[in-house]
Amino acid sequence: MATFLLNRNQEAMQYVAYYRVSTSQQGQSGLGLAAQRTTVLAYVKEAPLLAEYTEIESGKKNRRPQLLGAIAYAKKEGAMLIIAKLDRLSRNVAFIATLMETGVNFVACDLPEATPFTLHIMAALAEQERKLISGRTKAALGVLKTKGVKLGRPENLTEYVRRQGLEVRQRNAAENDHNRKATALILARRGQGTSFSQIARELNAAGFQASRGGTFNQKQVQRLYERANGIPRPPAEQHYG
C-alpha cells in the first residue's frame, strides 16, 4: 500500500518511506507500522516525506512489490529511500541485492551509517554463519547418534554442551548484533587498506560498542577480523572473547 503526501521542496533532501510488517507483527512493540512511522518522522524532522509504502509480508518472502514501488518512486523523484528498521533485512541477501542493483540512495534509521556495499557483506556473512551453524549442529547430532545417545532426551546433551562451552561463547560473540555490524565494516575497511587502529576510531565515532560494552580498541578490531576470516587465535588469548 502506497500513500502519497503533498509536502515537496526541491531545495531540501526528500524522502520516500518503506515500512515492513506482517499480520502477526503489527501488534508487537517496536515492530508495528505506527512505531516505524514514528521512527521515520523523527529522523526526517522537517524534510519532505513524499510517499509511504507499506509491505504486508506473507509466506512468499521474496515478493516485495511495495519495496520495488518505493524504489522506483524514490529514483523518479530523486529522493532518498528511508527504512525504519533494517535489522533483519540486512541479513536478507535478496533484499540487499535489490538495493544494490537499483542503485537507489537509502538510509536506515537504526543503522544510518550503512551502505549497499557494507550491507552486502553483512548479508553474506549472516548467510555463511547460518550455514556453518546448521552444518555444525547436524554433524554434532550425527556424532551423538553414532554413540547411541537418544537425542530426544535433553539431559543426554549436557556433557556435550559443556565440552563445547568455548565454541558457544565464541559464536555468541560473533552473533552479537554490534559485532555483526562492526565485522562487516571492518572487512570493508580492511579491504581498502585501513589499519586496525584507524578502524577502531571509526567504529567508536560511529557509535559502535564492543560485545561487552565500551569502545573498540585495535586488538578487538583485529580479533573480529581474524574470526571472520577463520584465523585461529593462540590458546593463551582464547579466554578473552
From TrEMBL:
PANTHER family: DNA-INVERTASE FROM LAMBDOID PROPHAGE, SERINE RECOMBINASE PINE-RELATED
Residue ranges of every copy of the Resolvase/invertase-type recombinase catalytic domain listed in the record: 14-148
SUPFAM superfamilies referenced in this protein's UniProt entry, alphabetically: Resolvase-like
Keyword DNA-binding carried by entry: yes
Annotated Pfam families: Resolvase
GO molecular function annotation: DNA binding; DNA strand exchange activity
PROSITE patterns from the UniProt entry: RECOMBINASES_3 (PS51736)
Membrane-spanning ranges: none
Record carries keyword Cell inner membrane: no
Keyword entries, A-Z: DNA recombination, DNA-binding
Protein name from the UniProt record: Site-specific DNA recombinase
